[in-house]
Amino acid sequence: MKRWGSALFPLSLLLILTGLTFWLRYATELPQTKHDGKLRHDPDYIITDAILRKIDQTGRLKYTLSATDIRHYPDDESTDMLKPNLVHFQAKSPR
User: Where in this chain does the entry annotate a coiled-coil region (predicted)?
Assistant: First the structure.
């Protein structure tokens, strides 16, 4: 009986260490990244020489936004404008 007791302790210690090793490997494993192109920062559309005009309900021009180049990036939903120019028109106040 004494033989089993002395052999059982190192064997159980070895099994516990093996289990902890597999658990640690699983816990620290990085998730797989997909290479489907969604992580790329490429524009999905490009507009050159763009002019946007906003009018109010009465038909008067409120502002004009123009840019030489507009690029939209779908990965983070950002939009970049090259040389933007915003002109805001104010209604004449009565005197």
Answer: none
